[in-house]
């Protein structure tokens, strides 16, 4: 009886060696990061309900504050409350994205996706960089939607186009810093615990600021705490760039909002970006 000879086993293909040289390693990390980001964007396109709800929620908040509460609000020094509110709402969208980042990172960890990435011959920074790119794209889209809706309810900027672009840039810079915090929390608290913590803190962080009311109307000690909230610096700086009512406080940080709107995010990135990469490399530790 004829027997078929067993086929020889296919030779194992060795994993490609990491590129040498700083420029080649940087290009390798960027390419891998974009691959991870594209995977997240594709997931959103296939299941758009969660991103759509994320866009709808700030729109509902604008409607509530403008039409339900706006009539009872006044801006110290005068000015239209809607124009005072919208820069704060833009910043709130950036803060609310923090929970989305933690949720996505925790979900990937729970499903074993993160461990799968770690077993692949890819840059150690690609997963966190890709997460950052994807979340920035999503936040930029949410910001565009809210800008359009704000225009419908009566908001507009009064400065130059360059100043307006600088204001939008500061908002995205704040989101960029918060992405790294979200990735780190998601990697450290690999489960529902991290999501619950961040979602619980989002509203206090957002409301303990100058986003909705001037800090001068708060008790002195509470107003000082709100002024030192990094979100308050971004909101005050953006209001100034947009030419919207500002009602700035008297403290040093409030009087130097534009400077601190840059310093705070850069400081947060300098702290949390290395922590994210280190934690990703040592997830089993």
Automatic annotation (TrEMBL):
Superkingdom of the organism of origin: Bacteria
Organism of origin: Nocardiopsis terrae
Protein name according to UniProt: Transport permease protein
Record flagged with keyword Disulfide bond: no
Pfam families found in the cross-reference section: ABC2_membrane
Keywords: Antibiotic resistance, Cell membrane, Membrane, Transmembrane, Transmembrane helix, Transport
Residue stretches spanning the membrane: 52-72, 84-107, 128-157, 163-189, 201-222, 257-277
Family: Belongs to the ABC-2 integral membrane protein family.
Location of the protein in the cell: Cell membrane; Membrane
Membrane topology: Multi-pass membrane protein
The ABC transmembrane type-2 domain, residue ranges: 49-283
InterPro entries, alphabetized: ABC2_TM, ABC2_TM_bact-type, ABC_2_transport, Nod_factor_ABC_transporter
